[in-house]
Amino acid sequence: MTVNERLKHARKALNMSQAEFAKAIFISNGYIAELESNHRKVNDRIIHLISLSFGISEVWLKNGEGEMLYKTPDEKLQRMISLFNDLPPKFQDYVMVQIETLLNTTKTG
User: Fold this and answer.
1) What is the mean pLDDT of the chain?
2) Ranges of the chain with pLDDT below 70
């Protein structure tokens, strides 16, 4: 299975339309269609967005190794910590504010 086929497989496994999937990762429907039909190359930015948005393993998307989805909250937490630690301190502060805002929004909504 190619990376383009794995992308399509992941979308279908999430039971999402191309439009829903594209909107979630901030790209156009046409772009997703071109990726899935192998008319465009799936780049690292798209892989990263899919992984962050849906909990799909970047390794699985790139080369098919391992499981498609992160299985446990601990795996997601480890991934989040790794990404967070790669950020410069000022961006870490921004992420913390966004997380706190999101939590407050979900508590009041």
Assistant:
1) 89
2) 71-73, 109
